[in-house]
Design goal:
The chain is built from 7 helices and 11 strands. It is an alpha/beta fold. The strands form 3 sheets. A 7-stranded mixed sheet has the order 3-2-1-4-5-11-10, with helices on both faces. It has a two-stranded antiparallel ribbon with strand order 6-7. Strands 8-9 form a two-stranded antiparallel ribbon. Helix 5 packs parallel to helix 6. The structure holds S-adenosylmethionine. S-adenosylmethionine binds next to helix 1 and helix 3.
Length: about 240
């Protein structure tokens, strides 16, 4: 079901991302996440749930050797079309992030999920697969909507996760900003910070850094609603390291 939602959203999503309409990406989450990821020159990087490859292309332009996977055939098709236009050397695969058997164990230096782990139902399996394909000492970086502050929908009503924090909640995300070509709906899962930290711990991924991004100054001028992120975070980025222990 979730895969169909993303396949159906392709037209709107690609326009949103590529035409600079995703202000939370451009002026909030990407600057902070790429700062955290740091130098990736000559590193083997896996971009999980990469969508149409916007951030995958940024990683490769920073000098990494990058593989991108997503379960949406349509998004991967569009990513491949970009690769055909400008050959950056990215390998794309249509794969479910919970089953990465295409890749050998202990392979990647960095594995990343940009704002997509919250869309994956079996996040425990997804995280154990990350741990398997990472080399010892390799880094796992993921960003998600902030579990304490995201807006979730419970029994058809929008509410702040702050009021309904404990327990996993599957909820629809209604993308309906005016700047979209057309509105669409996807599915996300609210989980607690403990859920994520437990899954990392069980996979021997040791949390090393955590960032709650603030908007850029340019972003605040360009998109004033980002001001809300000056008082409470919209997202969280967590880095962990695969421990050989
Ligand atoms: C919010 S989009 C983010 C896309 C991309 N990371 C980016 O920043 O542009 C979420 C992505 O997760 C993908 N996705 C959701 N569940 C997945 C799964 N189980 N396996 C692989 N991809 C998945 C969707 O197809 C979609 O491309």
């Amino acid at each position: 079901m979730c895969k169909k939602e993303w396949n159906d959203a392709v037209e709107s999503w690609v326009d949103f991302v590529r035409k600079g309409k995703d202000h939370y990406r451009d002026e909030l989450n990407n600057p902070a996440t790429f700062r955290l990821i740091g130098d990736v020159r000559d590193r083997l990087v896996l971009d999980l749930a990469c969508g149409e490859g916007y951030n995958t292309r940024i990683l490769v332009r920073k000098g990494a050797k990058v593989t991108g996977i997503d379960f949406s055939e349509k998004l991967i098709e569009l990513a491949k079309r970009e690769e055909a236009k400008e050959k950056l050397g990215i390998c794309y695969y249509v794969l479910d992030a919970t089953d990465l058997e295409e890749f050998s164990s202990n392979h990647f230096d960095v594995v990343a999920y940009f704002m997509s782990l919250q869309d994956i139902e079996n996040y425990k399996r997804a995280i154990s697969e990350v741990a398997r394909v990472l080399r010892n000492g390799g880094r796992f970086v993921f960003s998600v909507s902030h579990p304490c502050f995201e807006t979730i929908i419970v029994d058809g009503k929008r509410t702040s996760a702050a009021k309904r924090y404990f327990g996993i909640v599957k909820y629809p995300v209604q993308w309906k900003m005016e700047r979209l070509v057309k509105p669409f709906t996807t599915t996300s899962f609210h989980r607690t910070l403990t859920d994520y930290f437990d899954a990392l711990y069980k996979s021997k991924l040791v949390v090393s850094r955590l960032v709650e991004p603030r908007p850029t100054r340019k972003g605040l001028l360009k998109h004033p609603p980002l001001r809300e992120v000056l008082v409470r975070p919209q997202s969280i980025i967590i880095e962990s390291i695969k421990c050989a222990c």
